Write the structure tokens for this entry.
Amino acid sequence: MKSPYQDAPRQPLNAAASRSAYWSKSLQIVGIVLAFWMFVSLGCGILFREALDASALSVGGAPLGFWMAQQGSIIGFLFLLFLYMVLMNRLDRAHGFDQEDQS
């Protein structure tokens, strides 16, 4: 009986190593983005809110901790989306997956 894997196209080891490196770096980027998200939303919005409220800085007449819980988390999330886009585009270009070349 013939194995179904015998007819599968074999890829060079460089392609497999490149895919592995791409996947590893991609997971690292996701981890960085999730850590930033956790710090901004959970840290600044909930855990450090009282310390931020005690600071002399206020934004729009509201204490900084309250502002971070209401508006800062949203702005942080938008920054996070932009950061993810930039990092993944850079990774895609480094590994030859950029979409600008594929017309």
Remarks:
- The radius of gyration is 22 Å.
- Helices lie at 13-47, 49-54, 64-94.
